[in-house]
Amino acid sequence: MPKSSQGFPEHFLWGGATAANQLEGAYNEDGKGLSSADMVVYVPKEKRTGGHAIEITSEQIDKILSGKLDHERFPKRHGIDFYHRYKEDIALFAEMGFKVFRISINWSRIFPNGDDAQPNEAGLQFYDNVFDELHTYGIEPLVTLAHYETPLGLTQKYNGWASREVIGHFTNYAETVFRRYKNKVKYWLTFNEINMMTISPFTGGGVVIDRVQNKQQTIYQALHHQFVASALATKLCHEIIPGAMIGCMLARMETYPATCNPEDVRKSQHENQMNLFFTDVHARGEYPSYMTRYFEENNIVIEKDASDDEILKAYPVDYISFSYYMSLTVSSELGGDRAEGNLFGGVKNPYLKASDWGWQIDPVGLRITLNNFYDRYQKPLFIVENGLGAYDKVEEDGSIHDTYRIDYLRQHIAQMKEAIKDGVDLIGYTSWGPIDLVSMSTSEMSKRYGFIYVDLDDEGNGTLKRSKKDSFQWYKQVIATNGEVL
C-alpha cells in the first residue's frame, strides 16, 4: 500500500486571493470600460433588505449611465487603488513568503466594450507590469479570466451571458491574454464561483433579469454558454501554453441534514447535487443525469448547438478550485432559526459558532469537502478562497490584534493537513483577501479579511495607508514552515 502523506507537499502553493473589481480601482483610467461590478451602488447596512444579492434593473442602469445617480457611491470603481500601488502591495505579499497570488484580469480593461475589434494595449501592459513584479519575487500568478467583471457593453448589447454571442467574445478575450502572458502565467481559472449565476445573474454574468420572461430558463441557458466558453478556453489554453493548468471555480457549500430524518438527508443530498452540478460538467464533461429531472420539472430546455456536448466532453478542466467559508444545514420542515451565508441560506447548526456576519464557522467541514471532492473527481484540488470577514480595531499604537482571524485560519489549515493525510491531492491554498478590499456581497470595507490593513472606511474616507496586522507575521510563519507551525 502507498504510504500516506504526513504533511503539505514540498511545492505547495501558499498565497492569497483577490479580484480586480474589489482591488484595482482606476475604473476609468487608461482606456478601461465599465463592467458589471462598476454599477453596484453601496447600500448602508441599515438600509439593506432581502439579503445581499443585488439585482440591477434596466432602469437603474439607465439612471447610472445618464448621471442621475452620481450622488451615490460605487466602491468597486475605486477598490483600494491597487492599480497605482501594486508594487507596494506585492512587496508585502513577498515579505509574507507568498508562492502564488490569485488575481483576476478585468475583461473591460482589455476589451472596454467586451466585443472590440482590438484589445486595449494600456490594459494589457498593466497586467504585464503586475506579473513581472510578481516574478521579481518568485511569486506565481493564478489568474481568473472572469471574476464578476462582465463588460457592461455586453450587458447592453446582448444581455450578457444570456446570449450565445458572448461565447465568441469571451474566447477571443481568453486567446488574447493567453498569447500575451503565455510566458508569465501557467495557472488559470475560467469563471469565479460559476454557481453565482443562480443567485445573482447580474453579478455572475451581466444578465439583467427584468429583460427576460423566464428567469430560470435564462439562468441555465446563460450557464450553458459559460460551460461551453470554459471548455473552449481550456482548449485554447492547452494549445497556446503547453504545460499550463486551467481549472474551474465553485462556491462550495457543503450541506448537512439538520437531523437523521431521511427527509432531511434527502434534502441535503439534493442541495449538494445542485451545488456540485457545476463541477460535474467542468470535470466530467457532461450534464449529470440528476439534472434531467430538475430541468423537466422546472420547464427548462437548454438550447445547444450540435457540437456543444462534444466540446464539453473533449475539454474538461485540469483541476478543481473552490471557495470555502462555511457549511450549510437544511431541514425538510419549515421554520427554525435561519443562518446567514454569502448569498446562501440554511438553518442554524447548533454545533457551530458564527462570524460577525452570521457565517457558520466549520473547519472540519473543509476536510469533509476536500474528501468528497476528491472521491468524486480524482482531480487535483486548489482552495482559492477561505478566510474570515470581521471587524478590526486599530489600537492607539497602530497595532491590530486579530487573534480571531488567526484562530479561524489555523483551524482550517489544520483540517487541510488532515485531508492531505486522507490522501487528497491538494496543490495550493490562497486565503481570501490577504489585503483588506471592498466586499463583494455588501461593498463594505469594514468587513475585513486581510493580513494587511487598509485605511479606508465604508464611506470611502481614509488615507489608503497599508499596515500589518498580527496575522501577517503568523501567516508568514505558516508559509515558512510549510504549514508545520500553526
UniProtKB/TrEMBL annotation:
Its EC number is 3.2.1.-. This is Glycoside hydrolase family 1 protein. Pfam families: Glyco_hydro_1. GO terms for molecular function: hydrolase activity, acting on glycosyl bonds. Coiled coil: none annotated. The active site is at 385 (nucleophile). The keyword Hydrolase applies. Belongs to the glycosyl hydrolase 1 family. SUPFAM superfamilies: (Trans)glycosidases (SSF51445). Keywords: Glycosidase, Hydrolase. InterPro entries: GH, GH_1_N_CS, Glyco_hydro_1, Glyco_hydro_1_AS.
